[in-house]
Amino acid sequence: MERDLRLDDIDRDGAIADALGTMHGHTRADLLRGALVGGGALLAACAAPASASAASSRARDASILNFALTLEELQAAFYTEVERNRVLRGELKRQADTVGGHERAHVRAFRDVLGSKAIKRPHFDFGGATEGSDAFRRTAVAFEDLAVAAYKGQAPHIRSRAYLASALAIHSVEARHAAWIRRLAGKPPVAGPFDEPVSRPAATRIVARTHFVVRRTSRKGPRFTG
Amino acid sequence: MSDRQLTRASLMRGGAALAAGGVALATWPLTTASAPSAKQDAEILRFALTVEDLQAAFYADAIKRAALKGELLEFAQTVGGHERAHAAHIRDLLGASAPKPRRFDFADTNADAKRFGATAIQIEEVGLAAYNGAATSLTSEALADASRIVSVEARHVSWIRDIVGETPAPRAADRPISAKEAQAALARTGFLR
Question: Which ipTM was obtained for this model?
Fold first, then answer.
């Protein structure tokens, strides 16, 4: 059973409220109902009133970094699981091993910076997406293109220039990943002269639609807790 | 290709540490000091335009002279089109303050497919690192717009590296370079007349 994630899904039609800034702990049904549970620090940060104060800027930046961390956790868990399942060979395996190492490095970096403000590690269930090379390729293309678009959407909102420099340095690595896996999937590595951003609610909705983020780890089959 | 080695060496500085140990988010040096402003945006865009013009001219020259075939030809045609689109977009933004197109001399870098590939990697890496270095000095609006180009440059460099057999993404984070470093890297190529 494959759960295909497609970037064509990207919003256009009205998005879920901005308050749904995290996919941690939410099922798709929760997201559609607008229910908010858990993720205390992040939600508090989201709820902070907009103001020019330094404290507010820091809270906004922490909220954005936690959003990025969630995407990185998702990707890191995905590549780590496919590596453990030993289903890839040759160039595809080399791509997954290299990119997985990068995503894990990104996770560590965000956790270092966020410290106690970091979200708890989400649980994932990738279904069949890590159990065969075709499903892996399709999902990896979608994840990487989504990461590029999501970083691009958030970068202009980051107030700390040090964090911005780092987010941009990761953004372009995600774009390298995207071109690499697209080529391996037989797609044009670069679809056009401009890459468009995706908003945080739209990115959240795309991830929610995959059902990859779950409340707890499933017990059956080859599964990996992120 | 000692130019290429010099440039690549400067780009790779610190790369091994990053690949092995992760990304030190908060401790990276900022590449510029002044606060964002419309005037500074324009300065950065004028430099970006020179880079885009150079890249566009390089691919046009390569298609004429490097006897490219197969995927290398497809790469040069596709990416050349993107660079022209970027240059046109930036010229639009700058309006009357856009600099006149420069003249370039690519010497023997397009004499064959191998040299073309090595030089394409060089100019795409420099362009990407320069964008990443300058982006933190842009206003939010200019950053939002420029970032639509930056990831396309990153895809270009990944694609050409993969074609010629180099790892498309050698590091967990791309090292930015300052405008000064970017200018020095471009000067070393000798492409600017």
Answer: 0.86
